[in-house]
Amino acid sequence: MTAKRIKTRTRLKSTVAIVAIAAQLLWQVGPAAAFCGFYVAKADTKLFNTTSKVVLARDGDKTTITMASDYEGEPREFALVVPVPTFIERKQIGVVEMKTIDHIDAYTAPRLVEYFDQDPCVPTSLYFAAPASQGMRRGHLAKAEDHVSYGVTVEASYDVGEYDVQILSATQSNGLATWLTDNGYRIPPGANGVLASYIKQGMHFFVAKVDLDRMQQIGRGYLRPLQVRYESAKFMLPLRLGTVNANGPQDLIIYALGRNGRVETTNYRTIKMPSAVNVPLYVKEDFGKVYKAAFERAVRDEDMRAVFTEYAWDMRWCDPCAGAPMSASELVELGARWMASDSTTPAGPASASAFVTRLHVRYDAAHFPEDLALMETHDRDNYQVRYVLNHPWQGVASCWRAWEYRKGLPARFDDEAKNLAALTGWAVADIKKRMADTGETIQGR
């Protein structure tokens, strides 16, 4: 069934998906020394204004890409162009519910935890983490249509939910740009060079628009994320097309799922964001602002030439959990199809587990001239961005240990202020003033 064409020309938008010209164009027990704090806040993607989210699932040479759009305009003006390494059949394309991507975002988000100091006069006992509870662990091909004048071949056309999808191949960038323009994709200046590099690599192009009639029939009031599956030795994420028409740097969050371990980039530095940092208590009210400043400081320090790891964890458990654990069925929906045999319960035994890596990159054309080349490692060490609040004990001193404890508090408060300054670049004096204004003193804390 050949896709219906939407004649409306589209305006330019840069952040629909980083891989595109977009818009118009538990069984396992946790470690004995687990964090075991009280989770109190998270820093999700809503902190960053122009953020795209992509879920990658990798199993051998099989890759699943799920693209979540931040597009908020008229559906008739939405369009998507994605370079893919191989021809795509209808059975390799689908749509995903946005709530599933929101779930993995909440689950992997940087988090804030808090602890409460015990009475120094009470003898301490060795603490071992209790086992985590079960709730905590755990097409139709159209006839090929040749456009000799463009050097573009429409290899196939599909109806996919509310989308009309076409798979293109091309021999020259000028012809592809002309074809896209003639079909309602407004191509920005500078796109030809990027398109030419993909054509030289022999890549195909996945293009999609919204069918308004079908969207109304389905009863959807929003655009669902598109998912594409393919098999290729290339493990990469094309982001250069998204930089051509970008109005400044963009943020990209990648949630990478695999069997073996942490995912990292091979052509850019992959750096872990600072974690396990003690910060002043007032951060509880400003955690979103604090993490945004910390990430921007990290980007500046690396001259915007690095990819940052915010989370790397076995999906069978979490500690502390910034979101409810994901079920195996949700992970299968996002591409972890090796878990399909047990799709009704939280992630099961190690042989069927998924390891998730959350990568965060701020990029533009100048600092990221190449697409992201990725690799799955066998590093299964758990890591999360976690900031820590320590509430001082406030009781009556009844032993010498309590007096010694209180003598050490000013130095601890000073360290917390310096930690926050190092994370954010804010002035230590301003942080200490805020601490005093909010009662964070020896008496008030």
Which tags fit this structure?
9 helices; 445 residues; nine-stranded mixed beta sheet; 22% helix; disordered N terminus; 22 strands; six-stranded antiparallel beta sheet
Descriptive account of the structure:
This protein has helices at residues 98-108, 173-182, 191-200, 212-218, 241-244, 287-301, 328-333, 400-424, 428-437; strands spanning 21-22, 38-42, 51-59, 62-68, 79-84, 93-95, 111-116, 145-147, 152-160, 163-170, 204-210, 226-231, 236-237, 250-258, 263-265, 269-272, 277-278, 306-314, 355-363, 372-376, 383-384, 386-391. By secondary structure, it is α+β, with helices and mostly antiparallel strands. The strands form four sheets. Strands 3, 4, 6, 12, 14, 16, 18, 19 and 21 form a nine-stranded mixed beta sheet that branches. A hairpin with a 2-residue loop joins β3 (51-59) and β4. The longest helix is centred in the last third of the chain and has 25 residues, at 400-424.
Kindly report how far apart the N and C termini lie. 68 Å
**Helicity level, as a percent range?**
10-25%
Rg, nearest Å: 25 Å
What are the low-pLDDT stretches, counting only 5+ consecutive residues below 50?
1-37, 125-148, 347-351
Write down how many β-strands occur, each being a DSSP E stretch of 2 or more residues. 22
Largest sheet: 9 strands, mixed
Q: What is the average of the pLDDT values?
A: 80
Rough outline: elongated
> How many separate helices?
9
Structural class by sheet pairing and helices: alpha+beta
Strand content: 25-35%
